[in-house]
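Friendly challenge for the regulars: who can give me the structure tokens for this chain first? No prize, just bragging rights.
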Amino acid sequence: MTLGNSVRSIPRPLVKANQWTIVLSVILTWLTGQEWILLVPLLAGLSGLIFGFNPVMQLAKIFLKKDPKAYIPEDWEQQQFNQKIAVTCLAVGFTGFLLDWNGIGYVFTIMVAAAAFIAILGFCIGCFIHYQWKQYRFRRAHR
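First reply, four minutes later:
Bragging rights claimed.
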């Protein structure tokens, strides 16, 4: 999505803060058995998707040492796609734990925590899925 001549983006440290929040919330949920901890990244992610305001990123922004534009940018559209996947996995995981369907809770929280941690390490699974989806749609439209 472009705004004028610029591409809408998010500074990488804010994206990383969001990813670490997901990973740490999932691990704390597993260690404590308190599924409500998943509500932190879940509600922050939902808020970001619905209102364009992610409290985790806003809090992290306070700690930036440079101007936000000085950091490596992450594509806003791509991050929205990734956030939809994360919110879905967190919601299903939370619901699974809440209903004592622990297998479902673990499967979906493992997926979201693994994807977030792998993204922290440098490979974005959501980006890969998004790219493949766009390629599929392009090929299908140009048959």
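The radius of gyration is 16 Å. The mean pLDDT is 94. Your move, everyone else.
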